Amino acid sequence: MKPIAKSSKLANVGYDIRGPVLDKARQMEDEGHKIIKLNIGNVAAFGLMPPDEIMQDMIRNLSTSVAAGYTDSKGLFAPRKAVVHYCQEKRIQGVTVDDVYLGNGASELIAMSMNALLDGGDEVLIPSPDYPLYTAVVSLSGGTPVHYRCNEESGWMPDLDDMRAKVTSRTKAIVLINPNNPTGALYPESVLQGIVEIARQNQLIVFADEIYDKTLYDGETHTSIASLADDVLFLTFNGLSKNYRACGYRAGWMVVSGNKKRAKDYIEGLNMLASMRLCANTPGQMAIQTALGGYQSIKDLVAPGGRLCKQRDLAYELLTAIPGVSVVKPKAALYMFPRLDPKLYPIEDDQQFAYELLAEEKVLIVQGTGFNWPTPDHFRIVFLPNADDLTDAIGRIARFLESYRKQHA
User: Fold this and answer.
1) At what angle do helices 282-293 and 77-89 cross, to 10 degrees?
2) What Cα–Cα distance (Å) separates residue 333 from each residue in 284, 314, 330?
3) Burial tier of 66 (Cβ tally within 10 Å: 0-12, 13-18, 19+)
4) Of 378, 354, 386, 383, which is closest to residue 20 (Cα–Cα)?
5) Interatomic CA distance for residues 77 and 82, integer angstroms
6) Strand 233-239 with 251-258, pairing
7) How far apart are CA 218 and CA 316, in angstroms?
8) What is the pLDDT of residues 318-365, one digit of tens each?
9) What is the pLDDT of residue 307?
10) What distance in Å separates the CA atoms of residue 332 and residue 217, rounded to the nearest whole number?
11) How far, in Å, are 169, 260, 367 from residue 132 at the CA level?
């Protein structure tokens, strides 16, 4: 039988979770090795469970006929109304229930929004480093991802001059990930206003990924970019995966706001695609209203002395103590994106670097180029493991880097 060719649209779309480093990790686990996984923000794997009231509410709802059936293609009314109320809290104006789409996680809705928008050759501005889903779905939707630079020296803020320079007649949208994965950056209102102005001047849509908007440290606050204008079209994505530690529930939402009048055809396309997939999973939808209306336990985790805050501080302290390693301390989210000084670590292939770290020290990270960062001098870790495992893991990284320095001295 003739082999099925890999689509050319899948080439160079960023980090492939089925790549050789992951394959090696699975092989090692099959052989009985224990791998310390710092590669993915799967919070439940580290003992961080959803709030009990969310789980109990879902259990009760599972016994109803509603839970077993299809819903409206956009989702159940009550959780969509809860999202409307959340938008009001975030000062996003003009949102009605009809502007809210529930999905099987935010990822499904991100893909749906790009499928409805892009024709062949259309361009979308995406941050570098990025969350590679965006590069992938733009490519798979027939578009061209164009990466604008985020500057490490300014705390990983988007380079607005670089963003402006990369706008062309084919540019359709700007992707903004705030709080940011993989860097942990949180953007101030001045930066957001600059992005709004670029979108306004060029009639671009802003796709705002705000999945970590409650995972904030040191008393920081989050501003939704959609709250800053009503003459630009915004699509805002959020969900239960991170703030509510419910990755597997696949409960996310998308909100269309701002200048909806000039987007009638686009919104019609979104409605069509929402109908084609019938609906999001109903039990996951049923968790949203309880989550948004209940006690926000994420605040305890990120407060001084909270588990996530302590682990962030520990990871930062341990990493920056390693010669030639520097890190911008995250203000938000669950990740760090350390830099390796090329003078001490002359890495040419950072995927091979991650592979060798895994093979020698049984620690799994993600190479920086997997996030469409152009040079092999960064990697991403999550700081989700408990303090003992985190100390062990970064100690192993330090030992591996010491050996690397000696080999390349």
Assistant:
1) 40
2) 22, 15, 7
3) middle
4) 354
5) 9
6) antiparallel
7) 14
8) 999 999 999 999 999 999 999 999 999 999 999 999 999 999 999 999
9) 97
10) 6
11) 24, 28, 12
